[in-house]
Design brief:
432 residues; alpha/beta; FAD/NAD(P)-binding domain; 2 domains; 33% helix; binds flavin-adenine dinucleotide
């Protein structure tokens, strides 16, 4: 039935969109158009490891076309959706317009700066592959700059001396991470390992402990939503790894040369990384659909927009009606993507649609080699066993055999040789 198929547009090939497209591709009555501004899917939970020079970009991404080679009913379209004209069931993109009968919106989220002055302009974000590569280059490039101005080369820079030189060195070697959620905590741990292994070996002119990593959290505890036992464990581990953890430390301003805390303290640094908040992508606000917490689009329990039965919303973008708000995490996005696809099948087959119920599989955070904090149901695990669980879960969810193999190899290399292999700088210092 080639011309009678329902045309489904799926915007975004993240966890939700990719799962939805894969699920729908099993049913012959649909022709699916999967649209993404990138031609690859990114495994975001390991993004910080790219920024910390632990993994290559290719290890955590998979080309979209590769997923659908054997299914001609799925067209992958590499373009950016600029506007959703739901009255005319048309997407305006930076390429051609795309018509649809049914739509699944899964464009994910973006960084929320909570209006903090200077944050958008001066802070680094960690939300996309480009962010991670840019941040990695910047951090490594700061160490190179610090080396240029170190005492190892006194004759090259005779005019840079005294306090100026010391201050500049410390700012270049100070990394501030704002946000003590899993992302910030994991990144702090990974950076500490990078510094303690490769960096001190590569830069023998650096005094040991001269590189500072500061993790700032506005709340009284790290890892909001984790059991206190696990949050305490992660904090202790990070402190053992020479990360300075500051709690109740809200940031009120970010400047070109550092961050200001609410008590007025100024922390000089050339690298301020913002991991503190997420909100729905900007395109969500432009659709005109009712939005709730963090700009997420209100949907019925079936994941459809009220009075717009043909539009489903899945993943970070979606805020289903109900007593519990599903968290903005990968398992929720995968579950919603599959659920939206199955409900769409029910819709066209005139069957009763099912409400979405989020199955919480737990939460986890890793803090360097051999240490993690894991919650599965009401059970909590820490230490090496938790780390092995973390490894197994991430390898299982990582898309593609090649990626799993490469990640396993890089982790093993890192574990046994304590050496980071990805230390290339592209552009920077401050983008040259
Ligand atoms: C650094 C980081 C670490 C994380 N760690 C974890 C973790 O350890 N565990 C966990 O469960 N969750 C984690 N998360 C959260 C998890 O990744 C998200 O909840 C999940 O990715 C949401 O899936 P999604 O499909 O809704 O959106 P995404 O995965 O963000 O996908 C959205 C897709 O839409 C595309 N897109 C957006 N706008 C457009 C447009 N206008 N036109 C075309 N394409 C568009 C994007 O390119 C992207 O491919 C992390 C997130 C980040 C950023």
């Amino acid at each position: 039935m080639p011309n009678n198929r329902y045309k489904v547009a799926v915007i975004g090939a993240g966890f939700a969109g990719l799962s939805a497209a894969k699920e729908l591709s099993k049913y012959d009555e649909f022709e699916i158009c999967l649209i993404d501004r990138n031609n690859y899917h990114t495994f975001l939970p390991l993004l910080y490891q790219v920024a910390a020079a632990e993994l290559e970009s290719e290890d955590i991404t998979s080309p979209l076309r590769g997923h659908f080679r054997k299914n001609r009913r799925v067209a992958v379209m590499h373009c950016r959706v600029a506007e959703i004209d739901h009255a005319n069931k048309t997407l305006h993109t930076d390429g051609p317009d795309i018509r649809y009968d049914y739509l699944i919106m899964s464009m994910g989220s973006t960084t929320e700066f909570f209006g903090t002055p200077g944050a958008e302009k001066f802070a680094f974000t960690l939300k996309s592959l480009e962010d991670a590569v840019r941040l990695r280059s910047h951090i490594l490039s700061c160490f190179e700059q610090a080396s240029l101005y170190s005492d190892a080369h006194p004759t090259i820079y005779p005019n840079v001396s005294g306090q100026d030189k010391t201050d500049r060195q410390s700012a270049l070697k100070h990394i501030i991470i704002i946000g003590g959620g899993p992302n910030g905590a994991e990144f702090a741990g990974a950076l500490s390992e990078l510094v303690r292994t490769s960096i001190y070996r590569d830069f023998p002119e650096f005094d040991r402990n001269s590189v500072q990593i500061t993790l700032l959290e506005a709340a009284p505890n790290l890892l909001a939503g984790f059991p206190p036992l696990l949050a305490g464990y992660v904090r202790e581990r990070l402190e053992k790894m020479d990360v300075t953890v500051k709690l109740n430390a809200a940031v009120t301003e970010i400047r070109k040369d550092g961050a200001v805390l609410k008590d007025g303290t100024f922390l000089p640094s050339e690298t301020v990384v913002w991991t503190a908040g997420v909100r729905a992508t900007d395109l969500a606000a432009e659709t005109g659909f009712a939005a709730g917490k963090s700009g997420r689009i209100h949907v019925l329990p079936t994941l459809q927009i009220a009075n717009r039965a043909e539009i489903f919303v899945a993943g970070d973008l979606s805020l289903p009606e109900g007593e519990t708000v599903p968290p903005m995490v990968a398992p929720n996005a995968i579950q919603q993507g599959i659920h939206a696809a199955r409900n769409l099948v029910r819709l066209v087959r005139k069957q009763e649609l099912q409400p979405f119920v989020y199955h919480d599989k737990g939460s986890m955070a890793v803090v360097g080699r051999g240490a993690a904090a894991v919650r599965i149901g009401t059970r909590t695990l820490t230490g090496t066993i938790a780390w092995l669980v973390w490894l197994a879960v991430h390898l299982t969810y990582l898309v593609g055999f090649h990626n799993r193999l490469m990640v396993m190899f890089n982790w093993a290399w890192d574990y046994f040789v304590a050496e980071r292999s990805v230390r290339l700088i592209f552009r920077s210092w401050k983008e040259r």
